[in-house]
Amino acid sequence: QIESELHKKHVIDAWGDQLMQKKQQEATEQEEKKRYENEYEIARREALERMRQEEEKRRLEEKKQAEALLQQIEELKLQETEATKLKKEQENLIKQKWELENLEEERKQMEEHRKKIELGRFLRHQCNAQLKRRAQQIQEELETDRQILLALLEKEDEDQRLQSARRERAIADAAWMKRVIEEQLQLEKEREAELQTIFREEAKKVWEKREEEWEREKKARDRLMSEVLAGRQRQIQEKMELNRRAQEESVKYREQLIKELEEAKELTRREREQEEELKSARKQELEAQVRF
Fold first, then answer.
1. Residue range(s) defining the domain that contains residue 111
2. In angstroms, rounded to a whole number, what is the distance separating the alpha carbons of residues 239 and 225?
3. Which one of 199, 203, 266, 280 has the largest count of C-beta atoms within 10 Å of its C-beta?
4. Average pLDDT, the chain
């Protein structure tokens, strides 16, 4: 009986020890599992935080690149507007040059026409009437020159690209020539009035004398007009050259902007591809850790 009780007690104690060991082992395993889960959770959170920070960094970088691209696009639009403006200016300068050449040609044709009419009238010995008509012709020529100079002054006022000193000199020259012609026009009007008191027999003598005066005055006036017109031609030519250079620079700059835009787009595309590859790799890494 005693042995049976001892054996039973021994079995109970052994079973209790085994149960305690099992509980201790389970507790140890639970603690190990909890520790591993905590470490994994920390690692997972750290990985997610890194991904979040990198995503934020990428987003800010993309925003910065987008703003830079928009700025370049706006600059390109401005350059295209400037190119259109330069083209219109060039067309206007060509038109001015053509108008000036027409004015010069008109003066030459008027002079040739005057000589033909003058010869026919003189041959008909209508000295007195011819003298009056000649005076009117001179006034018409002076008025034509005055109108040309007025047109030149208007062109100078419209022109904003010419350097200030040169522009003021050109305006001053044209204004001075305009005053000279207006004084000459006033003198011719006085001469015309004077003709009313001249007797017919004196007309031929007065004609010859007046013709000499007119010829001298015309040569001087033609020389001055030639200088003014030639100066205007030079100004137009210089502006056309400046405009041509500006257009060339504008084209080069626009081409450079377009090239930079294309390069920026390609760089953005590559960066996005690399970012997607990196995100995919990290996602796979996290999934592998979860499975493990």
1. 84-265
2. 21
3. 203
4. 73
